[in-house]
Amino acid sequence: MEPTVAKSADKTADEGGSETSIDRLTAVEAAEEHARLATEIREHDTRYYREDAPSVSDAEYDALRQRLQALEAAFPDLVTPDSPTQTVGAAPSEAFAEARHAVAMLSLDNAFSDEEVDDFVARIRRFLRLGEDGELIFTAEPKIDGLSLNLRYEKGRLVVAATRGDGTVGEAVTANAKTIDDIPQTLPKGAPDVVEVRGEVYMTHADFRALNEHMQAEHGRVFANPRNAAAGSLRQLDPKVTASRPLRFFAYAWGEIPELPRDTQYDMVELFQSWGFSTNPLMRRCSTASDMIAVYHEIEEGRSGLGYDIDGVVYKVDRLDYQRRLGFVSRSPRWAIAHKFPAEQATTVLNAIEIQVGRTGALTPVAKLEPVTVGGVVVSNATLHNEDEIARKDVRVGDTVVVQRAGDVIPQVVRVLEEHRPEGAERYVFPTTCPVCGSHAAREINPRTGKEDVVRRCTGGLICPAQAVERLKHFVSRAAFDIEGLGAKQVEAFHEDGLIRTPADIFTLEARDKQNLKKLKDREGWGPTSVKKLFEAIDTRRTIALRRFIFALGIRHAGDITAKLLAEAYGTWEAFETAMTALASGDQAAHDELVAHDGIGETVAEALAQFFAEEHNLEAVAALLEQVTPEKAEVRAIDSPVAGKTIVFTGTLEKMTRDEAKARAEALGAKVSGSVSSKTDIVVAGSGAGSKLKKAQDLKLEVLDEDEWIALVDGA
Asked: N or C: which terminus of the chain carries fewer CB neighbours within 10 A?
């Protein structure tokens, strides 16, 4: 699942296809979406690179990453060193010793069409100033679908083998790598004193089938595909297990070599072969983009007969001095690109449609299929994306369907073969209640387009078991309750054992522990001291800032920044809850008051209304409030003439920028709104003020010009 660098992604599907134009996002909305996407991508990276258990398809992962890149292009301040656009892979597992790479292990950009390959070659020529006729040779080789591995040799002996990890630090799997026949433990005389050889650990189709037969017979479980089998086999704590697995290795690159013994990519790979490494016999040299594309199609046509999985062709500039000149951009080399294959397809019967509830409450339909082999993998499940897709394709139980896979973990249903539809097959009716907790499942309305979101979501966020673990992790996260000693791992373990099911359960844990025969201190990894510290940490959070409390509830679209705005707008939990209850009942005045606050839009308003309309959520919050007291929001400038007042700025200000005026007002304890309503106290009108000024006059509100505003606040 190599991440993709997209050319353009100002609109991208979000959990099933909903789209929001980035040019319409406010800075607050963009920051919160960026934080959400970054968190989700990091979780997927961990599952793929570290746990060998990816949970989304390559295409879904690529869409998330494209959206993140587009957000950063539109809002450059969002780019940080730890953004997924600036990092590679995932942190290494704590189960293995760390191995720091002398030269970073990066990822490749992807191409999905012949035109993108043409563009890649043209970019290289422009960068190197070669013109149209200058000689430029590339190598083309199959892109192996396996696990990247770095092998470090010192004085001819293998001393460290490490996985990619986060690109900088990987997992030391040296003993395991030494069990692979394709990896020599010593290099011949003449090899440099320090050599790092890189390549891919993989498993053939035949070996994968044999392993799964053994796993099924011995353990009752199997691997999903050869890539997962290879990764899981290499990352075993017991090298004897790895030795029993039929792993193979192709060498195709290198890390640290103080003095390169060859001048081209092709010759370096040939040198590896002479040292005893297996290299791919399909590697070729090409002199034009059309030659590269021809090799791509040739390999594509023969991929089914290779006996191992590949998901594309990798092109690299052959001359190493050119590679050095081209260098790297962000997380990828400029001199290489992966040309991915299109999806493989097969036909099978859809036996049932199952609704799964994700960690954000999204109801996702999954097709339960008659097992079929697609691209060397047995497929029995496929995504149907969302209810609109089911309706558009008119997918029915019993249909014969075309299933597509392109190295994806979760294949998709492409179309229905209606000529094979069984008589009496009924149209599928998508549920409007959560199949897990019974709460109402709603589709949000996009305030900009007026259209429904394609994703239907469970509104019982605090009580839905399908969302519980992730909601609890969010509840104890750093920006929320931040309970020392109660992190993600502890939450998972406590939830699995039934100790914590809802947020309120955290605060009754000590009382229940005293009543239980099996004490928390007797659990593995715990003791009297650690338990005492945990209970003390929980007690310190029985009083908490209002913004943290609101954020901890995990209301959709109410991130840390929005929670701060809401806390400042309403001041107390009682005022906030009263207003939100009114909002949920359809009170227009409550709605208008909410969206009048700067930074709060229709999307947030709808999410808040749905949350407070769900009785299950109110019950969970009530139980939590029996244990916890949200503090009154801090009032910043009580003595100022505008403290507690709602201000609207309109028109062009001459003596300060709009941002300066807003910051000054907020520093004096005022609330700055983007719209005029009956709740507005003062409207500051600059030159060219239009409809907002007229509405203020119609409502007989206090209107100040810029000089009057400055005079009002100057002495504060």
From this structure: C
Looking at residues 232-241, what average pLDDT do you find?
86
Region of 637 please: left (phi>0), alpha (psi -120 to 50) or beta: beta
From the list 289, 282, 284, the residue with the least C-alpha distance to 114 is: 289
**Averaged pLDDT of the chain:** 85
**Residues of each domain in the chain carrying CATH 1.10.287.610:** 1-87
- 98-340 has which CATH code? 3.30.470.30
The pLDDT assigned to 9 comes to 39
pLDDT at 133: 84
* Number of H-type helices and E-type strands within the chain: 25, 26
> Cα(265)–Cα(252) distance, rounded to whole angstroms?
9
Which pLDDT tens digit goes with each residue over 267-306?
Answer: 999 999 999 999 999 999 999 999 999 999 999 888 878 8
- Catalytic one of 11, 143, 316, 473: 143
User: Domain 1-87 classified CATH 1.10.287.610?
Assistant: yes
Residue 143 a catalytic site member: yes
* Domain ranges in the chain with CATH number 3.30.470.30: 98-340
What is the CATH number that goes with domain 646-714? 3.40.50.10190
* Res 576 pLDDT > 90: yes
Delimiting residues of CATH 3.40.50.10190 domain(s) in the chain = 646-714
| List of residues 6+ apart from 666 with CB closer than 8 A | 636, 672
How many Cβ atoms are within 10 Å of 442's Cβ, its own excluded?
21
Per-residue CA distances from 262 to 181, 319, 326, 337 (Å)? 26, 10, 18, 22
Distance CA 492, CA 490 (A): 5
Q: What is the dotted CATH code of the domain comprising 463-634?
A: 1.10.150.20
Three-state DSSP at 538 gives helix
**Residue 569: pLDDT over 90:** no
Q: What span, in angstroms and rounded, lies between the C-alpha atoms of 493 and 344?
A: 39
Instruction: Tell me 433's DSSP state.
Output: B
Average pLDDT of span 343-364: 86
Exposure pattern of 618-643 as b/e (b: 16+ CB <10 Å)?
bebbebbeeebebeebeeebeebebe
106-157 confidence digits (pLDDT tens): 889 889 899 999 999 999 999 999 988 889 999 999 999 899 999 999 999 9
Burial class (CB in 10 A: 0-12, 13-18, 19+), 45: buried
**pLDDT of 558:** 85
Q: Is 372 in a helix, a strand, or coil?
A: strand
Instruction: Provide the pLDDT for residue 106.
Output: 85
> Which residues in 546-668 belong to E strands, given as ranges?
629-631, 646-650
Q: Per the CATH hierarchy, to which homologous superfamily does domain 343-458 belong?
A: Nucleic acid-binding proteins (2.40.50.140)
Helical H runs in 626-674?
Answer: 658-667
Most confident of 412-416, 516-520, 605-609, 621-625: 621-625
Mean pLDDT along residues 223-229? 82
Name the segment(s) of the chain with CATH classification 1.10.150.20. Answer: 463-634
pTM listed for this prediction? 0.48
Q: Which whole number is the average pLDDT over 371-395?
A: 85
DSSP 3-state of 423: coil
pLDDT at 42: 75
Q: Are 163 and 236 in contact (CB under 8 A)?
A: no
